[in-house]
TrEMBL record:
Residues 2-318, 319-418 form the Carboxylesterase type B domain. The keyword Hydrolase applies. Belongs to the 'GDXG' lipolytic enzyme family. Belongs to the type-B carboxylesterase/lipase family. This is Carboxylic ester hydrolase. GO terms for molecular function: hydrolase activity. The keyword Hydrolase applies. Residues 40-68 are annotated as: Disordered. Keywords: Hydrolase. The lineage of its organism: Bacteria, Bacillati, Actinomycetota, Actinomycetes, Pseudonocardiales.
Amino acid sequence: MSPRVEIPAGAVRGLRDSFGELYRAIPYAAAPIGAGRFAHPEPRPGWSGVRDGTQPSPTAPQPVRDFGGLDMTPYFGPGWVRGEEYLTVDVRTPAADDGRRPVMVFVHGGGFVTGSTRAALYDGRAFARDGVVLVTVNYRLGVPGFLDLDGAPANRGLLDVLAALGWVRETIAAFGGDPGNVTVFGQSAGATLTGALLAAPKAKGLFRRAIVQSGNGTGAFTREQARRVTVAAASALGVDPTAEAFGAIPDERFLEILPALAALDLRTETATDPLAGLSPFSLVLPVQPADALADGPAGDVELLIGTNTEEGNLYTATKEEAEVLGKTLFEAGTARLARAHARISGGRTHVYSFGHRSTARDGWLGAAHTVELPFVFDVADEPWLHGDTGLLGPSPAPDGLATRVHGAWIAFAKTGDPGWAGYDEIEFLG
């Protein structure tokens, strides 16, 4: 018999397997339609009857991204799967009972323009197996999610994640989770959003711990940089740079103009491009998250943070370019965020460095951006991650590494201790 859970919005039917229960495509906010794509996320009205939670959600509108023959579909998912109601979460739980288990909320990466809960890498079976309730989140991307427009709230994708965390606080107990023991974790753009949550006043009380994987605590655009993207987008579309004007434009057109936006030079007299040209979208903030932690919940939050040793190899073809990109885009902002958190949190900052080298691309890929994810989610032995085009390459995953990495994430979510000392000691994984 299919499992069923009662939540404030109504009943949801899920799936049961040997790992526990899975409930998919549960809305945490109303569907972003028309002008609503550029508004604050609004609560979704409840439903009558039993909602089908056995099928995956539609995804935010997004382009196809090519990484030169490397199969990144396990990371990006299937691309744009059309449907209005994509502000949803998937919940993996050992059981929808009164267990009050630790909760982990994952925010996917994808350069602020791609990604979804449908990505195969984010399978939550190992988390449920190990006594954790895993929640994965869809949020608005690209123009609807992050373009700075007159008449629209800024950082709408971040507002979505905040709304999802509010949903978790109010609802997760019905799925066997403890709303008082929530760890939010993200990778890449999702890690940058997680860093911003640490500095967001509205995030106070929504989570107890955070994990920042290959993010950038100094990755926000200045208003001048964001405006440059906005002007270019409005010009390409032939409309005014307002939420009202953009609200009448179909999502297909937003995707068509992305190549032109990606070519913009965002360097100004006072700021470099914090994303080194890899995305025309980011958060738009007056102060970088690493310099504003005292404004948010960071002082009361335990933090696990780190990078991979060869982050830039995913994006470039030369060693020199990769070293520069890795330091500029990931390492410097991560180090600044870690230092800032250590100063205000009383020794509750833990740092890691992930060094396992994938053998993909004839061994060039190495410990690149995203390579830690199969080990965090304990899926590194899956055949779709191996072979000539697989993220981990033709070689098998090293024995015990996924158990060690995934185990550290689980331990941190349960206790705040991943298994090594605080900020002054960097744990090498791999």
